[in-house]
Amino acid sequence: MREKIDCFLPCSNVDTIDETLQTLRQSKTIQHINLLVDSNKTSDKELQSADDCTIMHINSLTSTQTILDIERNADAEYTLLSLKATPVDFGMHALERLLRVAADSGAGLVYADSYVKKADGSVTKHPTIDYQTGSIRDDFDFGQLVLIRSSLLHAYATQQPLADYKWAGFYDLRLFISRKAQIFHINEFLYTQVETDSRKSGERQFDYVNPRNRDVQVEMEQAATKHLEHIGATVDTSHYSRPDFSEQDFTFEASVVIPVYNREKTIADAVKSALSQKTTFKYNVIVVDNHSTDTTTSILATIAAKDRRLVHIIPERHDLGIGGCWNVAIDDARCGRFAVQLDSDDLYSSPHTLQRIVDEFHRQGAAMIVGSYRMCNFALETLPPGLIDHKEWTDLNGPNNALRINGLGAPRAFFTPILRQIQFPNTSYGEDYALGLTFSRKYRIGRIFDELYLCRRWDGNSDAALSIERQNANNLYKDRLRSLEISARQQLSEGKSEDTAADSSLQRFFNRQLEIWADARQHFRDLQNVKTRELSCGETTLKLQFNPARMVSTGASIDKKTIAKRPCFLCEQNRPKEQMQKQVDRNFTLLVNPYPIMPQHFTIPLKAHRPQSIGMNYGEIYRLLDAYPTLTVFYNGPKCGASAPDHMHFQAICSGMLPLQNDWARLSRDLDVIIEKDGKGSIAIAKGAAIPLFVIRSNDALTGEQLFRALYTVLPMHGGDTEPMMNIVAWHDETAYISVVIPRSKHRPDCYFCDGDAKRMVSPGALDMSGFIVTPRKEDFERITPDEALGILKECAMQPAEFTETLEKLRSRSEGMLAQDSHFSGKQPSVSVGIVSGAKISFSLNKPYMAKGNLIEGEQVVEFHEGGILWNGNQYRELTFHPQSADASFSLHDVTIGVNFHWERQETQTFLGTLRLVVDSDKVCAINELPVESYLESVISSEMSATSSIELLKAHAVISRSWLLSQMEQRRKQHSGTGGNGFFSFIRKDDELIKWYDREDHTIFDVCADDHCQRYQGITKATSQHVAQAIHATRGQILMDNGEICDARFSKCCGGITEEFQYCWENIKKPYLSAVRDIPSGIAGKDIKAGTTDNLPDLTIEANAERWIRTAPEAFCNTNDSRILSEVLNDYDQETTDFYRWHVTYTQEQLKTLISNKLKMDFGDIIDIVPLERGRSGRICRLKIVGSERTFTIGKELEIRRALSESHLYSSAFVVDKDNIEDGVPQMFRLTGAGWGHGVGLCQIGAAVMGAKGYSYDNILLHYYRGAEIKKIYK
């Protein structure tokens, strides 16, 4: 061999390595010998015997500077470096063998096995392990000698920039070499080295976490991270996913998991430590006893008999390691949401360890938590190195540094759904490290640097004193784990990793459900064998599926009686015990559909049992698509395919499966846009579709909801229906939400009801209308032709004439939307106010008025007569009295105020402006017409006290103006035919009446003068200077929501939480009328941040509502300050002393008579009053009255208030106590309630308190109307 070697030997004493030098001098392979000496420790005299060697003075063998010094002195092809300053006894031809293998393999670094000479003179074998990609730990054992190809040493030295390490120089070099060439292991014992560390393996294994070595570890981490960056194997923690801890329901929040085999000495202590934990949640202890042969099993059985929290499992398999035992524990249905490690010979440091770990999961958003432990003996005395806290870990780089070290710490805890997905390797060493690496690839590993755990060392520890063979096997396995992890990370960074959807919380939920629910699992397996056919209909291709399992839906009877008889299968209490649920948000849960149509099929029901209603729930579609972007969400209306029309729900499937979606590229090229919304979205029709459909495309959810509301209001309603007939299919493409609304005219086609060969059992829902037709009968699957299939869809879809009419209404609405920025043409409008109606009306014209060409003044009387108005002996269809001066007024006598309220009375009222008299049915109606700002002066004076704070008055001026102008716009749209769908303000069934009172009750004027609209008393009550100032300061200002005038509702007292619009009126959500906790939230000084819903309890849940109403939580409106109350409660309102929390008591006779009179039906004795549905403030919107003769349900909130009071109950937020029950009939009912009024929008008393506390009017408004903005629309 021509190649030569330059040797570099650390030397502290030449005499000790004399024999090594003699061997090297005699070898023909050696070109030159270099001694690396520390000048502070070795004198020149000591080096005289090595005058044929080059003396190199170094400070540290492991520094970068030493490596560079070696490189400058390395002239031969190879460099032999000794890693210790101890003698080496070379075997026969060892140097030649090293050189030969290096040349033949082309390796960049070669190392070999060796013998070790111990202190007692004995010699033992010291094998090393093969180097692999994952051998990047800095303590990899090469032995004492490494042979390096010098060209790589020179290449390393020329790197720019080159780090200057004190301890990591050689480590950085060998990582560099591993990137450029092979590192080759010779499985031959080529030399003997002297043992320099005689400690047992159990003592050496914690050197890397010894605080004294911290500076060394920092450098090693830097070198390792640089290496991982070079090979593309770093983890970018900014891309971590935050676990959804609510993705599955668990009986126990946490489980302590203890695998055990033959630990009779320690297992009782470990279990006791686990069972002694103090927590605020339910937990258990799962011990997997791996067929112990000592008394471990009986010890556990004894403890389990006394404490049911201990789950003692003896696995069926006999081939399990520790990892396998963990898998048995986490796969058990009793395993908690978080699985927390405790080894069978260790203890928790305190009874609060488990609570701390679970708290940190939530605080840190981690999928795995690792704590800190203290080494101790059985007397719990600290052993070196003491506390092992792994403080080298950082959130940013910990996952990368984890590849350099051999452990992550303890105790370890895992989020169970992700752990079930990943699974432990079935080994008894490194199984926890393997999990840590895999978790760290995609999820944050949280750290707790405080002591949580006691690691008790004793001779029985499995790692106390390992042989070199066992140590090598362990290290080889962990290097293999690191190699696998590096490969996985490289694929991840290159975008070649597995489908991210398969790693989602939804996929885990789906997989787990099929694991534990045999019926559902079988139905999904059966789906693989379900037959499908393609039906070509010109440009449209339909799919037909033969799915016998869907008979439960297709053949379902949805008539009222059938539904009433069966328990609702979507209500939690009626579901199979195997059916899991995944919380989507506070309102909806997600279930796996056990009768699937698609490979993934979910049902998403509302938690509360409420009828199918898209108007108030449409926004949930966007929330679902945001949460699960790979799904297609669809909705079946009550008579459009919903097999549970009595329970609000959506469904979802994996996206891209429907013919509608497959054909979307063609359809989307031919869209006719009807409404364009600020460049953020649009409503269009798909001209190329086989059936009529509307396409809502939006960049954001808010725009999508607004566009849907516009469409919803023009879709036709049919008598008895609760909403327009429709299906909806929605998905998220790369840039926008796509929501396809398919209007319907029929529930089922005529052929569904035929007999014999003409029958086709097809009951179209959203999927069918999207081209994926399902039939449960084989004969239908085989016989249906393309024309038949398309004909069924066309028959059930909206018919052409109705579609054309709807389209025209939508186009008209579009024109109105385009003109929204110029509401009322930028000018102050006049308002018409209905004051009083009756067969006879008496009034006085206090100054001259013009009527029928004559000047009129003084007392007047008009009467209804033969369909007209009789005045001064003449009959008219309509009379108008025009004022002849700005201060002209008229007085109406016997005007009733507080109609049907507890303060109802009659009085004479005086008004400015025009008086118009019209016929309304069989009465004469008096209408006052005047400018909006003048009207508002009266309204604010009537509603509020002159002593109110100026900021409160300004706030009220803005909302009164906003509400008024919104009503006026809506009424004008109704008159123009563009305002809606012939909307019903009630839903009447045999056993139910749901009614609400709103603008549609007023057809001949804009608003009435009573509290049902806004209290208007003209100039009867003098306008105070304060009110005039507030009106003037806010002139033309209104609340706006995305170009629409806000329907700014308000009430006296919300009761602590404001209500949402849809629970009191039409089933449409209005974003700015959302539930708000009436407390300061996000406040700095006097500023309040809108959009906060802190501490908002879910009062739609009966138990929560009852607890809320029976207490008096802090709120702005919870005040007894008479000065503040007088600002809101005028003289007649102050007759009411209870408002925040109130009580009403009825005897059986009183309640029975009251309800009978109000509802005009006989209930017999009243047995119970049962809330069926509550809004977000706790107000009841559906109430069941149970009588001995009949049961009837009423709603919404005002109808409930009217039915349970001679005038009006203060609010519908109440709970009922029944007393003195005789033969099942309560003799006394006590109602405890919260708030006064409907509770929607601004709370007047709460706003008064805010004003008194110094909040500005805009802060007050934005507290109650979340997301709205204040705009001036006229001067």
Could you characterize the architecture of this molecule?
This protein is α+β, with helices and mostly antiparallel strands and 1275 residues long. Strands 32, 33, 34, 35, 36, 37, 38, 39, 40, 41 and 44 form an 11-stranded mixed β-sheet that branches. A hairpin with a 4-residue loop joins strand 29 and strand 30 (737-743). Helix 29 crosses helix 36 (1257-1264).
Provide a compact summary of the structure.
The protein is α+β, with helices and mostly antiparallel strands and 1275 residues long. The chain is 28% helix and 27% strand.
SS content category: alpha+beta
Mean of all residue-level pLDDT scores: 88
Distance between the termini: 101 Å
Strand portion, in percent? Answer: 25-35%
Count the beta strands.
55
Helix content: 25-40%
Radius of gyration: 41 Å
Largest β-sheet summary: 11 strands, mixed
Q: pLDDT under 50 segments (min length 5)? A: 1083-1093
Which geometry do the CA atoms define? Answer: elongated
Number of helices: 36
The protein's oligomeric status is: single chain
